[in-house]
Design goal:
heterodimer, A: 559 residues, alpha/beta, seven-stranded mixed beta sheet, five-stranded mixed beta sheet, 21 strands, globular, B: 323 residues, Ubiquitin-like (UB roll), Fumarate Reductase Iron-sulfur Protein, Chain B, domain 2, two-stranded antiparallel sheet, 13 helices
Chain lengths: 559, 323
């Protein structure tokens, strides 16, 4: 019998931080991930992690204000205060764990500038901060003695008497189905980038946790808030870090003009991401790009700086686009990057479902509101990962395991999976359904949106959901059947896609990442509120949740 | 471009499983990576093809495999640069580790080696309230090693691990170096004596044969072999100079310095100890076999001509300021 007080689903930064924290509280803890922990998508965070360190004259209030403003006043200010107040200690903990942060001349942690912030408070390891942190977090996970289920794919939640009490999971290597019982579950499953094509996100980022929670009755909040990153590489859509602009890179149109002068005269290229992406898209729509791209120019930064601080993205440019940023400009465009929305939680990670927690990108606390600041996502993962781990472990102390028929649960899930495998071979393929979804989302739920486009995507999604019930699985065997995993992931993706489209249609104003050409202005009177989606009979049902405002009154955003 | 992917496949679920080759012909954009090709095969042609992949940008370490005989990341290699004259590219699973299915190998052995080096920071003193003070140079140097993404390419092509599965191997030793070179690890001077002592054991740092394959294939420039050499130096500097490995290195260097060429006959006794009879006797049959096959090194070791110039070179390396 596999059972643990706390079961963490997903082993990126948030998940491992949660597991380590829960273990330190004395709970029995397991972490389950469809890939080995160091393969997680936290790897992709390049630029750094924000924290206001008081010993160098910064203050958490300043960080919080920048975050609130960046969120276009949709972020919950009470939660943002918690995040920014906790940032310093969370960062120092990571340094003590062993992260090799770049240093300043005195040997203290060094900083770089990042978008949407008035001072340099982004701490970094070259341009692979996420990878450096992820591997160190894995080292600490090993040390902590948490049980690891690596390359296990969670296929469903088990509920008994209205409480989640375990999961069904597929051990990918053997193809065997297991039930893992637990008193509490923490979702740390990351974002949903693969709903969009292209996206900066890794192929594993398929919204599994959001969909599992949603199907079990959890609330999804701010789902319309999808971040398009200003600098994604032509072609593959891979990320080129904001660190490039943090170090001083320019954005140029086809005539070599720094067009950000016209959109954000003070912050220029370092305005917040939604602002820069809109500026680029506006220029592209006006015909000022080349092959759908504008240029990122790093040449004036010099070879030495690039080799020390931006070497990984230089490699990416060479390998994937054949351009060397030391001597060439890089063709870039806005591309889907991050999900501000997710499973609605409080500051301790608690969802509306008893015993179910969420942290990291799959969660919505909401600290990012309408637009996340660069380098706040790593911070989000470790602050709220830790808090949810502690809280979930404490909640287990007075909680007994709920009894249920484990064998029956295994058999039921085996049957369901076998039905997927046994489908006839004549339906549309998983890859083509995903591509159709991704292109539709990227066409109509991108930088600029309008009602007609979003209705078209709603229509597309209905058709694709119908096709999904017939997608065939080529591989009928058990061992490492990734074909089966992709088919199951596609179901999760389609559920999430629907909540995005419905939420975006509901919000009739422009705020943060949502820019509607049919409602071009921010309308605080009517839309200063969160949109919440729960699963209903006929798709997502919408309600609203108030925005927490503690000390910063909403005002017009200028950079 | 029209290309052929020649892929080594393996299905463990058939009777008497054996690996076999399968060709896939496909059309790709000129800028396509090997991974783009494999995904196209998997999505459009044959969903039974199993491989690990995720980030598409050489950071997650999932897609290491052998491409034209050498380990590398499929996402980092452009197809057009890897084609032969007939537009064929050869794809096999990574080496050394057992195959699970198709291009998926079993990483259990890889991770067990990593676990052996206690892969987490172990500072001996009290933790400061704020960050540890350390030089940027020290951190940049370490970041060159922590850039390792644990893809297993070095292990796949390690020529020692291929024949000796007990060797810790390039990934684990580079990981170990990441701690021994960290000023925060070990004692107040940043010396990690316990680690160096453990790594001195057989199967550790002295078992590398310096073939440099790991340096060649590492997609992140970690240069594991260079880190292993640095570990050896650290160990000797920390006082672990009386081990087989250290003495072997010393005997090697002494012989060269003295005569300009290697005295192979005396290398073994000088390494294990002239009076270490059990080990020397153990080796006697091998020496005898060499003798009967005419492969015993000359009994009388001679200096090469101009051996004094070799000695001068040694002096220049050891004390560059003086010369």
């Amino acid at each position: 019998m596999l059972e643990h007080d706390v079961l963490v689903i997903g082993a990126g930064l948030a998940g491992m931080r949660a597991a380590i924290a829960a273990r330190a509280e004395g709970a029995s803890v397991a972490i389950i991930s469809k890939v080995h922990p160091v393969r997680s998508h936290s790897n992709a965070a390049q630029g750094g992690i924000n924290a206001a360190l008081t010993d160098r004259g910064d203050g958490w209030e300043d960080h919080a204000y920048d975050t609130v403003k960046g969120s276009d006043y949709l972020g919950d200010q009470d939660a943002i205060e918690v995040m920014c107040q906790s940032a310093g200690q969370a960062l120092i903990d990571m340094e003590h764990f062993g992260v090799t942060f770049n240093r300043d001349d005195e040997g203290k942690l060094g900083t770089r500038a990042f978008g949407g912030q008035r001072r340099a408070r982004t701490f970094f390891v070259g341009d692979f901060t996420g990878q450096a942190m992820l591997h160190v977090m894995f080292e600490q996970l090993i040390k902590s003695g948490v049980r690891r289920y690596e390359e296990w794919f969670v296929t469903g939640l088990i509920e008994e008497d209205g409480r989640v009490c375990g999961v069904t999971a597929l051990e990918i290597r053997t193809g065997q189905v297991f039930v893992i019982r637990s008193k509490t579950v923490i979702f740390c499953t990351g974002g949903l980038g693969r709903l969009f094509e292209p996206s900066t996100n890794a192929l594993i980022v398929t919204g599994d946790g959001m969909a599992l929670a949603y199907n079990a009755g959890a609330q999804l909040m701010d789902m319309e808030m999808v971040q398009y990153h200003p600098t994604t590489l032509a072609g593959s859509g891979v990320l080129i870090s904001e660190a490039a602009r943090g170090e001083g890179a320019y954005l140029l149109d086809k005539n070599g003009e720094r067009f950000m002068e016209r959109y954000a005269p003070n912050m220029m290229e370092l305005a917040s991401r939604d602002v820069v992406s809109r500026a680029e898209q506006t220029e592209l729509n006006a015909g000022n790009g080349v092959n759908g791209c504008v240029y990122l120019d790093c040449r004036h930064l010099g070879k030495a700086l690039i080799m020390e601080k931006l070497s990984q993205i230089r490699e990416i440019g060479i390998d994937l686009a054949g351009v060397d940023m030391i001597t060439d400009t890089i063709p870039i465009r806005p591309g889907m990057h991050y999900m501000m929305g997710g499973i609605k939680t409080d500051v301790d990670g608690q969802t509306n479902l008893p015993g179910v927690y969420a942290a990291g990108e799959c969660a919505c606390v909401s600290v990012h509101g309408g637009n996340r600041l660069g380098a706040n996502s790593l911070l989000d993962t470790i602050v709220f990962g830790q808090r949810s781990g502690v809280h979930a472990a404490q909640a287990c102390r007075d909680q007994e395991y709920i009894e249920f028929d484990v064998e029956q649960a295994v058999r039921r899930e085996e049957r369901r999976i076998q039905e997927v495998i046994d489908r006839p071979q004549n339906g549309d393929r998983v890859g083509s359904v995903r591509l159709a979804m991704g292109e539709s989302m990227n066409r109509n739920l991108a930088v600029y949106r309008d009602e007609a486009g979003m209705l078209e995507t709603m229509h597309d999604l209905r058709g694709l959901k119908e096709k999904y019930t017939r997608v065939p699985v080529d591989n009928k065997n058990r061992v490492f059947n990734t074909d089966l995993v992709f088919a199951l992931e596609l179901g999760f993706m389609l559920d999430c896609a629907e909540t995005i489209a419905v939420s975006a249609l509901e919000r009739k104003d422009s705020r943060g990442a949502q820019a509607r050409t049919d409602y071009p202005n921010r309308d605080d009177e009517n839309w200063m509120k969160h949109i919440v989606a729960v699963k209903g009979e006929e798709g997502p049902e919408i309600s609203y949740s108030p925005v927490s405002i503690t000390r910063w009154t909403p005002e017009e955003r200028k950079y | 471009m029209d290309v052929t992917f020649k892929i080594k496949r393996y299905d463990p679920e058939v009777e008497a499983p054996e690996s076999y080759w399968q060709d896939f012909s496909l059309t790709l954009d000129d800028s396509a990576t090997v991974l783009d090709g494999l995904i196209k095969i998997r999505e459009d042609m044959d969903g039974t093809l199993s491989l690990r992949c995720s980030c598409r940008s050489a950071i997650c370490g999932s897609c290491a495999m052998r491409i034209n005989g050498h380990a590398g990341l499929a996402c980092k290699m452009q197809v057009r640069l890897a084609l032969d004259d007939d537009n064929v590219i050869i794809i096999e699973p990574a080496g050394v580790m057992p195959v699970v299915k198709d291009l998926v190998v079993d990483f259990d052995m890889f991770w067990s080696k990593i676990m052996e080096v206690d892969p987490y920071l172990r500072p001996e003193g009290t933790e400061p309230d704020a960050e540890y003070i350390a030089s940027n140079e020290a951190m940049l140097h370490l970041s060159g090693v922590t850039a390792c993404i644990m893809c297993g390419a070095c292990v796949s092509d390690c020529t020692v691990m291929e024949v000796d599965p007990t060797f810790l191997g390039p990934a684990a030793l580079a990981k170990a170096y990441r701690f021994t070179a960290d000023p925060r690890d070990g004692d107040a001077q940043g010396v990690s004596r316990d680690r160096l002592e453990a790594l001195n054991e057989p199967t550790g740092m002295w078992d590398c044969t310096r073939c440099a394959e790991c340096v060649e294939v590492c997609p992140k420039g970690v240069a594991p072999m260079d880190r292993i050499m640095a570990l050896r130096e650290q160990a000797i500097n920390a006082g672990f100079d009386n081990t087989y490995g250290a003495r072997h290195a010393e005997a090697f260097s002494n012989s060269l310095e003295h005569s300009g060429q290697l005295d192979e006959l005396r290398l073994v006794p000088n390494t294990v100890g002239v009076f270490n009879l059990p080990v020397l006797l153990n080796m006697a049959p091998e020496a005898l076999r060499a003798l009967t096959h005419g492969k015993l090194p000359p009994i009388i070791h001679k200096k090469i001509e101009n051996a004094d110039r070799v000695r001068k070179l040694f002096r220049r390396v050891e004390d560059p300021d003086r010369s």
